Amino acid sequence: MRSRYTAYVMRDEAYLRATWQERDRPAIGALELSAATKWLGLEVRRHAVTGADTALVEFVARYKVGGRAHRIHEVSRFVREAERWLYLDAAESPG
Q1: What is d(CA 38, CA 43) in angstroms, rounded to the nearest whole number?
Q2: Which of 25, 47, 82, 87 has the lowest CB atom count within 10 Å?
Q3: Torsion region of 66: left, alpha or beta (phi above 0 gives left; psi -120 to 50 gives alpha)
Q4: pLDDT attached to residue 93
């Protein structure tokens, strides 16, 4: 999760796509990685192994666009394929 957050900060689309499970991986150029987005921090709230090759990570990422603060609060699902953890999707968005 931390490496994917860093890739968003660095606008590294290649890394994000490489760490996204193929089934739901966005097309090249489909990610919105604007230089106007200023990332402020990542808090990993919890993580849980849910199976031999599956896990959940709850996180809050904070950022600003045009001086306005925003946050992403998500529980993400990850799957391990060939010894690499890949982002699958958002399992839920906690209230």
Answers
A1: 16
A2: 82
A3: left
A4: 65
CA angle 31, 5, 91 (to 5 degrees): 75
Domain residue ranges in the chain: 2-92
The hierarchical CATH code for the domain 2-92 is 3.10.450.50
* Spatial separation of the C-alpha atoms in residues 88 and 74, rounded to whole Å: 13
Q: How far is the C-alpha of 1 from the C-alpha of 53, rounded, in Å?
A: 16
pLDDT digits (tens, 9 = 90+) for 42-85: 999 999 999 999 999 999 999 999 999 999 999 999 999 999 99
Q: Which residues pair with 54 in a beta bridge?
A: 51, 79
Helix and strand totals (H; E) in the chain = 2, 4
Provide the mean pLDDT of the chain.
94
